[in-house]
Amino acid sequence: MEKKRKHFAALRAQEKRNKPPTKAQKRSQMSTYLKHMGRFTYKQLKGKNFDEIQKLFDKEMKRVTTFMAMGSKE
User: Fold this and answer.
1) Distances (CA, A) of 33 to 1, 20, 48, 51, 57
2) How many domains does the chain have?
3) How many Å apart are CA 27 and CA 37, to the nearest integer?
4) Is 72 part of a structural domain of the chain?
5) pLDDT (tens digit per residue) in 23-66
6) Are 29 and 53 in contact (CB under 8 A)?
7) What is the DSSP letter of 30?
8) Count of alpha carbons within 13 Å of 18, Cβ hemisphere only?
């Protein structure tokens, strides 16, 4: 019985750890990324809503993922 209780407690703990981030957490993460990589300031991002920040984030991520070094063969 004790083993079963510990097993289900571990499953609940794992479920809590694997929860997707909330909208506010995602906005914070994207803002931090844009401040460091996208050359945006806190003032520029402060008045924007989630959708505007997400558009800026997607644009910056596209720029980063499509980057090709000058000496590459592709």
Assistant:
1) 47, 18, 15, 15, 8
2) 1
3) 15
4) no
5) 999 999 999 999 998 789 989 999 899 999 999 999 999 988 88
6) no
7) H
8) 6
Q: How many CA atoms lie within 13 A of 13 on its CB side?
A: 6
Whether residue 74 is contained in a domain is answered as no
Which is nearest to 45 in space by CA: 24, 30, 63? 30
Domain that holds residue 26: 21-66
Rounding to the nearest 10 degrees, give the CA dihedral for residues 65, 68, 73, 74. 50
9 lies in a domain? no
> Is 34 exposed, middle or buried (CB count within 10 Å of its CB: 0-12, 13-18, 19+)?
buried
Q: What amino acid is encoded at 43 in this protein?
A: K
In a domain, 7, yes or no: no
